[in-house]
User: Fold these one by one.
Assistant:
Number 1:
Amino acid sequence: MFSKEKFQDFLAKLNTGYTPYVLILVHIMIGAIWVYSSPRSNVAFVVFISSLLTLYGLNTNKIFKLSAGLILALVVMPVLGVRNIFYLEIMFQISVFAALSLGLNIVIGFAGLLDLGYVAFYAVGAYLWGFFGSQQFYAIPYAPGIQPSDLPFLLPGDMFYLFIFIAIIVAALTGILLGLPVLRLRGDYLAIVTLGFGEVIRVLANNLDKPWNLTNGPQGITPVQRPTMPQFAVDGFNNFFGGIIGHTVSKADVYNVFFYLLALLVIVTIIQVVSRLNDSKIGRAWTAIREDETAAIAMGIPLVQMKLAAFATGASFAGAMGVLMAASRTFVSPESFSFMQSIGVLTMVILGGTGSIPGVILGAATVTVLNLQILQGFSLYLSQLRQSDAVIPIINFAWKNLSTQLDPAKYQRLLFGAILILMMIFRPAGLIPAARRQRELAADDEE
Amino acid sequence: MKRFSETINVRELLRPIGQMIAFSLGGGAVLSLVVVLLALLLDQTAVGQNLQARYSVSLVTYTLANLPQVLIDGLTIGFVYAAIALGYTMVYGVLEFINFAHSEIFAVGAFVGVEILIALKNAGILSAASLGVAYLILLLALLAGMTASGFLAVAVERIAYRPLRGAPRLVPLISAIGVSFFLQDIIRLVESLTTGQFNRIIPTFGNFDERLIFGQLPLGATTVVLGVQIKSLIVILVAVIMLVGLNYLVNATKIGKAIRAVAQDRPTASLMGIDVNRIISITFLIGGTLGGAAGVLYALKFTRIDPFVGFFPGLKAFTAAVLGGIGNLTGALLGGIVLGLLETFAGAFMSAFTMGAAGAEYKDIFAFGILILVLIFRPNGLMGENVSQKA
């Protein structure tokens, strides 16, 4: 006990006066310099990205927090990312998944509805822009693989911006259509039905290449247009940051930065919407439904409408992200919308803490880094071992003989499954529990 | 008064057999009738002409020629679904919880059974086996798959579900999803460590792939061979024996009585001196055993298995359980048979009736359409009573 108290004292001391400011700045500096100097280091990236955590966790002035966060997200990360595309890709992925898990968090965390087919709405958005933003409309009469390559595009690329909003509406409508029949049911049925819906969307995307070729089947639609990027933006970026980056930035890289910033914009929008909703009548209704449906009905809350609202809000953000994803990858295919993706997003929400915005972002970052970096790092390491003459000491097993199927990068299910089980058993409220849950947990301790 | 175990309750043995025959014949007859009527109606329209143009066969002939095989296939897969669905429904009855990992328990059963057969094949026993021995070996594989799955189910309950009892409803469900994903990759890991790949193909042995021919039916220009693959018969037979056994266990023994009591009211059951934890473990054991057997049967019927093989059968079996009325054993039986038949009919005839626009590739999602329809119009299922939600 003694050492624990001392440790807490120490933590408290760290969290008062000017120390937290210094700590945060030092953390950011170390992370940034390390990432800047090392081309492909997972450790460096983890140190750097965890500076967001220090920024969130330590007790500082709100304006400082906000401005430091903004500079970090809007300037430092893009610059580091463009210097090294490897990092930009991770950051883009993190922001996409953070946006998706924030959207799913509305459904699971606020209204307490388990949606296992969340990527279906993502797919709706992606295929919406995939269809209208590509040559697919003119390719309808042709079977996949035999369409002429000189087909015109249906819409100009700049319609992308409009389609973000259209996708929000379409995905929300899809959510309402799906929700209407099933939201009257209990939560576990809803889970299975949404799972089924996710599969339906994937199978449709796979098979709607006949009788009319709407989705181009398993091959997917490509190329999907991007909005135009004016040359002066690229030049401006180069003039401004060229010195630090050290090489001229190509248009493709500026595009990546652009999509990363757009994803951030979606995240900020979700956070705004969610935190406002949370304090509104709707948010309170959601909380009531989550805690006790029967009591909520007794209090006069229109159950189905409120659930539909949660479902549609969550779906709409996924739709917007789908459009973004289709444009940034210039490619949509059914593979990206598998059940495992849904579970991946669910894992992020559960790991971070349902209903907790910082928690969910942390969850998204952690799972993405684990998934894209650590597992693939292991894979790389294993394949190096395989090529060497090394032998496992005690059991005398040569690494060379290890099956090539044993590729940790493919074992995402193991990772997701383990996280889900462990979190449910040991920390069901997540890494950063929501404020309400924190109060409840504190009350439990006092009893 | 006599004790339960002293007498054999013949009624409880005969009742499920009667039900199964009724469900199979009824479901098969209704669906055949619908398909034949549709065929008669559409024969002279564009649909019939399209088929005539493609395969130069009339729609009615096509339908009638395929019907016997479709019926047999539908029943075979229907009984497999019923065996899996019973695992879902039993656990749901006792714990009010969807055991999402049941599909992987099914897959483990399939893998254990097939691995034993492969080992026997490599040892040279399989090729040398006479017909009788082949059947014994199949029985051995079945029993091994059942044992492995049964104990796995119990272990999963101990580790991942029991600590969460009493938590909000979604908590054990999420844990179960985690277990399901975890087990899929564990199977894959184990299988790819031993050999370079994780798929397994059941070795051919015995006379399971042969067809029993009953006769031929002349039908216009073609003749329809009325026959059935021996392995289909085995699948149906084994499933029927298991289902009858389970029904007997639940409805006519002391353990079954305890299971029913726990399902009805857990606190009161424990006051009556029933060890609730033990009964829940037994429920998982029974459900897992059935799932494992279904896995081996599935492997026998479809020959190729991979670590993710449980996903679709598991989902469809769950649909079957809901269709029949979840928590209801007879309902699971009915749901499994009906779903198996419906799905096979859809897979076989949809392509012909939609002029090739939508075919068997939609077979896997057909079940979800049914699930959603059932949930809209009859959420308690075909045989479910109106049960209110337990607090």
Number 2:
Amino acid sequence: MEQNSNVIISGFKWFFAPRRRSDSPFKRMIIHIILIALCVAAVYPVLRIVSVSLRPGNRLLSTSLQLIPDDATFESFRIVLQKRDFLLWIWNSLLITITTSLLGVTIASISAYGVSRWHFPGRKAGMIFLLATQMIPAAMLMVPIYILSIKLGLVNSWRGVVIAYSVSSVPFSIWILKGYYDTIPVELEQAAMIDGTTRLGAFYRVVLPLSTPSLAIAFLFNFTQVWNDFLIARIILQRAEFFTWPLGLQRMQGQFQTQWGEFAAASLMVSVPVMILFQLSSKWLISGLTLGSVKG
Amino acid sequence: MGALTAQIVRSSLSEVLGTIFAVAAGIVVLELVLYVILKRKLQWRFSLPIMLVSPALIGLLLLVLYPILYNILLSFSNMSLRRFTVERGLTYGFAEAWNNLKIIFSEPVLKQQKFFPVLFRTFLWTFIQVFFHVTIGMMIALLLNRPMKLRGFYRTLLLFPWAIPQIIAVLAWRGEFNYQYGLFNLLIQKFGGQSINWMSDPFWNYVAINLTNIWLGVPFMTVILLGGLQSIDPSYYEAAEMDGAGKLMGFRLITIPLMKPITTPAIILGVIWTFNQFNVPYFINQFELETSDILVTALFRAAFEYNRYGFASMFALIIFIILLGFSLAYIKITKFSFGFDKAGGGTPLQAVGE
């Protein structure tokens, strides 16, 4: 009898430990219930997409709230993957996103080092300028960028988009990276320079490897920004062969009622690259972001 | 419709990579020129940092400053799809600027709604959003900041809305607002209520947009606030406890002031991003109700559906001035310095603690 209750008690201890002495088990239970409810709210809409994507074609518009239908099928995924225009959207998005993110982070990581280590004239004005660029409504740049693209012949070509995307996340990346470089002691570079490398060599061999968390975050932000961009793509890429997935899916959604299942399947597939990146960088997310963007 | 063919792959690959290499080559040339002028000729001690920041600077000037100046020029014109070139009747001048201004404040911005109702709706939207993002985000961050089992698991799930592409999330939510098949009406019916016309009723459409964006925006705020909470040294709370302060008092006297360097920029950015949020109000508003438009979506429609470019440029300028005014006022009121005055490192805590 006593042993039994001991097992139960140690089970409770396992579930609630480690704990603060001041929290009663009841209070901890309440906290867990609140957190579980919030998690359900956070994940549920996405689970519904999963559910729709798994439904067979004749039951797409069901009023059932069941998450995994009894007759689940991957039919919708197969149909979407066989559509060569879906593959085109994915190809376009991947190509443009990977190249411009790499270029953007490279530019930002170099510039942030200059801003972090030297108090050159115009530095403060430059940082304020960076902040001000974040205040400009994207929609405000749309009209001039559109008119300029027409006049420069950049509509329906990759050239203008590549440049615009490479630069668009640079201010945010510089802020993040500069904040992170600031926390790395200069003495480390000086030591490396005594050992015979140049200033830039020290940056490359010492500072950059130490900044992996913030570099990862900057890349993640560049990637998601470009991958998810609708506005710039919408005004510059108008011919179907240039469509990225947001444009393609928007067009697909025009026939929303009929293609609900295919739309859901496509949505899940375009979410995969971003989710993988988030998962890979999740351990750096909080340190990389906080040290960078937030400086008192 | 386009399809993926070998030829398209070849042409897009060569164009994109070609542009990247052209940019890289341009940067190399720029660095060489700067090196020769600054380092060799002038022997300036700041030549290296200038060389480091110049690619980003020039890129931003091209992509941000040049369009802004061009936007100002356009706002002094009567440009529209019909009057696109000077030969077709495009004119610039103060009269055109005055005319654009007059239309914004006296006539409907699109077809029915005038400027001030849209402005009010935008303010209301921004206030609701930032309020809920910060309060719910703070609540979740406080819960997650306690030592407990399954913390990493909760954190992963709670950040989920942030990780999926915004357009996907928004379109999924739009599906849930469907009259017949959407989750919300199904739930309402289950509890015996009347189905709501989320898409065509102006009030409920506005509510739908707000609900969606609260769901989308909370995770980011949670991450930021959680990072701040984790940087607070627990010994502060222990000291306060010894002095007899309760939990609530500790929150008010320790957490809030120490979090200020984190909450201030987070709130400024939150306001700016919400004010400029395009995807949610644009996509949830399936039937293009003007009563759900905020300034940014109204601007987009004025420019790209009504093709009134000169008018839209002036409109954009006014939106920018409103935002700038807000940010300056907020920085002034909270006496926030963004750490410009401090050389080098230090955690947020050290900055406040001195």
